[in-house]
C-alpha cells in the first residue's frame, strides 16, 4: 500500500480520514474513551529530568544524561528515517539513553501512559488509532513547541527553526491562537494528478481555464479515454482539487469563511461557479463510467491504466499506486484549473499542508529531549533522508538538492515553486472530520458528481450541514485568527 497509513494530513491520520468510512468508527470511539480517561486525571506526572545547560550546541538546554523516549507510528513511511535521526541524537548526547519504539496502536499503547502521567518525550500521533488532538489540547496534555520553533535551526545558528519551515506548518499546529502544539513533519501536495505522456498524446497542455479543461476532456473522449475519475465511494477526495479552485476563483477569504462555518459561506458566487464547473464534467459525460462505485484504489488503478486522464489526489498517490503506474507514465500534478481571467488568485494556487503530527507531552520526563529530536529531524540531512526513503517532502523548506526525485515528487516541487505564496490550506478536514467526510463529501459532493443532486441542491444541502455543525455545542469550534 505504499506510503498509505503514515501519510496523514490535517490533524487526523490520513487513513483515519480518508481510507474508508468505517475508519471513522475506529477514530471517534477511542477518542471518546480517551476524553473520559483524560478527564479522570490519573497520575501526578513522572520525575522531570533536570534541565541541562543551554549552549550554542545545545540551545534547548537538554539534560545530556537523561533518557529520551520516542514512540513512532509504524505506517507506510516506515521507521528507518526516525531511527536514523535518533542515531544523531545519540551521537550528540553520548551519555543519554535513547529508547525508540514503533507501533500502529498509538492510542491503546499510549493512552494509559498519559493517564498515569508518564508519557514518552516525543510521539508521532498518527494512523487509525490516533489520539484526538482537540482533546489533548483541551486537557492541557501537550507541551507548547514555541521554544523549539524559536531555537536556532540545526544547520544554521543564524536561522530560527520556524524560518526553515514550509508555508502553513506553524499555523497548522495551533488551536485558537498562539501556542503551537503540533509539528507536522511530512508535507503533502494536493491537486490534479495525470500522466504527462497521456496529455502529450492528446497534443494538449494542462488546462488553465475551465473552457480549456472541457476542450481537453472532449479530446480525451474522442480517443476513448474519460476526462476524470475519482474515489466515488469516498468522494471527500474531490475537495483536493475543488477547494483550492474555490480559493483561486473567490480568494482565500471564501475558504476561511467555509472553515469558520459562517452562515451562507457556501452560497458565495465562487462556490457556485466551481460546483457548476464540476457538474459539467458529469453532464458532458467526461467522468469514467462507474466511478461512483469505485474506491480510492480502484479509481487510481483505472487512471493508471489510462482509462481516465485526471484524478484529484494527494502526493501519497505515487507510493500508493507504485505497483500499477507504468514506468513511462510520467506522473505529474498540477494546481486546479480556474474559471477564467476574473479569478481572484493566479493559476498555480494549490493546496499543500502538513501531515504526520509530532507532539511532545506536557508531562514528558524530558520534553527538551523530545524537542531536540524534532530539531534534528528538521535539519537538511534528516529531511533529505526522509524524502529519499519515502518519496515525500518534509516540513523543512528545502532538502531536495542533489536527490534523484521521482516524477511525482519532482512535479510536486515544481508545483510548489509555481505557487509561491499562493498556497491554501483549508482546515475543515482536521477541524470537523465528520462534516467534511460524511456530509460535505459523501452526501453532498458525491451525490452531485453522480448526477443525483444539481449544484444548487448540493450547495443548499451542504450549507445546511455546516449550519448544523455551527450550532452543535457537543463539538469544539475553531476559527481562523
From TrEMBL:
Belongs to the bacterial solute-binding protein 1 family. PROSITE patterns: TAT. This is Carbohydrate ABC transporter, N-acetylglucosamine/diacetylchitobiose-binding protein. Its main location: other. The gene is ngcE. InterPro entries: Bact_solute-bd_prot1 (IPR050490), Chitin_NgcE (IPR022386), SBP (IPR006059), TAT_signal (IPR006311). It is found in: Cell envelope. SUPFAM superfamilies: Periplasmic binding protein-like II. One of its GO terms (cellular component) is cell envelope. Coiled coil: none annotated. Keywords: Signal, Transport. The keyword Transport applies.
